[in-house]
Amino acid sequence: MQLHLAVFSVALLMASGHALGLGYRTASDVQVVDDTCIFEGTSVPTGTSVRQETPCRRITCVARHRTMFLQECPNYSCPARRCRMASRSGPFPDCCPRPVYVPRPRLYAD
């Protein structure tokens, strides 16, 4: 049964459209009360997720294992000079910074 819950949790995270290993980690410093994980002051019922804005992440409780899955923003880089990282707001993943193209300034009017 424990293995089924772990497999279900991973499948749930992958079904959200994100690849496992990109921005995922686990936290084991979780307190469990009445099948609810308490992590960094946030209560999350087992098997559910909370999308946060600060810090920008989604946390999912697996109370049976006293573990939280944390999905954080992927690390993007701007390889071109005309690229910058744009800050965003809203709950995860809307709050994740994204690379945006910066157009060249126009020197002359058409």
Automatic annotation (TrEMBL):
Keyword Signal: yes
Keyword Signal: yes
Keyword annotations of the record: Secreted, Signal
Domain Single positions: 37-101
Record's protein name: Single domain-containing protein
Region forming the signal peptide: 1-19
SMART domains: SVWC
Cellular compartment(s): Secreted
One of the record's GO cellular component terms: extracellular region
